[in-house]
Amino acid sequence: MSNVPAELKYAPTHEWSRLEADGLVTVGITDHAQAALGDVVYVELPEVGTHVDATGEIAVVESVKAASDIYSPVAGTVIAVNNVLDDAPETVNQDCYGAGWFLRLKPDSAADLAELLDAAGYAAVCEQDSH
Length: 131
Hints:
By secondary structure, this protein is α+β, with helices and mostly antiparallel strands. It has 4 helices and 9 strands.
């Protein structure tokens, strides 16, 4: 089973979210997603200041296998993007829950995070994907 940290929230589309102490939400893709993609060669991130809807497209990840859309787990405004990924997209493969984060959002409502899956719920989604 892939790595599914218990402190994060998950979208069924394989994005993770972490509520930070300052109220912002950090977003990235899960270990399951980066493993399925293979070697990430390019990440296209949104512009700071962009407003995104929950489940709206926020980024594109290109790997040696395919290009995949990344969706926002919650509605909000992009406050920061991880510029490290411009020069080192492989960081997503190496540390998807740490240095390989994608962006930080100011959520329209922190309550939106409650709608996402917990680690057990997400693990069940991954389990279904593998069948």
